[in-house]
Amino acid sequence: MSVHDKTNRRKISPALLLLRDIFLIAGSVAIAVTFVQSGFLSAILDSSRNFFPLEAFIAGVFFTSIFTTAPAIVALGHIAQGHSVILTALVGAAGAVIGDLIIFRFMRDEFSEHLLEVIESKKLKVRLRALRRVRLFRWFSFLTAGLILASPLPDELGISILGFTKPRLSFFIPFSYLFNFLGILVIGLFAQSLL
Question: Which of 35, 55, 86, 184 is most buried (CB neighbours < 10 A)?
Answer without folding.
Answer: 184
